Amino acid sequence: MKFNIYIILIYLFIFSFSGYSQKIYSSQYEYQADVKVFVVDYMYQADLKVFKVEHEYQTKGNIGLWFFIDNSYKSDKKIYFVDYEYQADLKIYMVKYGYQAGWKNKEKIYLLL
Questions:
Q1: CB atoms within 10 A of CB 76
Q2: Beta partners for 67?
């Protein structure tokens, strides 16, 4: 009986994180997007600090490590980059290193779940 509980817990642990990976598709049209994003000039203005990873396996949960996908059907989220801050659902700042990625405004974390 304990063995079954451990199997279930391991299964839930593994798949709870896999659902939050951030494979992102940048759509060309606003109506195709799940989230409208604006790239800010300064880190303090951002809701999320994003690091663009080179490989899909480098995405880890919902912490701002983004891998951009070429096809929308393979992505977890579709985003559209808007021209003005007031149009955005989410403001991001692109960081230089992966360890800098993360949420600054956790109230908006639901946008990428």
A1: 20
A2: 23
The closest of 19, 29, 15 to 72, measured between CA atoms, is 29
pLDDT tens by residue, 18-58 = 444 589 999 999 999 999 999 999 999 999 999 999 999 98
Closest CA to 111 of 90, 91, 80: 90
User: Do the domain assignments include residue 46?
Assistant: yes
Burial class of residue 1 in the structure, from the number of CB atoms within 10 Å of its CB (0-12 exposed, 13-18 middle, 19+ buried): exposed
On whether residue 54 sits in a domain, the answer given is yes
What would the mean pLDDT of 85-99 be, rounded to a whole number?
97
Question: Average pLDDT of 1-19?
Answer: 48
Query: What is the domain count for the chain?
Result: 1
Three-class SS of residue 68?
Answer: strand
Beta-bridge mates of residue 81: 37
**Is the pLDDT higher at 112 or at 20?**
112
Q: Is residue 106 part of a domain?
A: yes
Yes or no: say if 36 and 73 are a contact pair by the CB < 8 Å rule: no
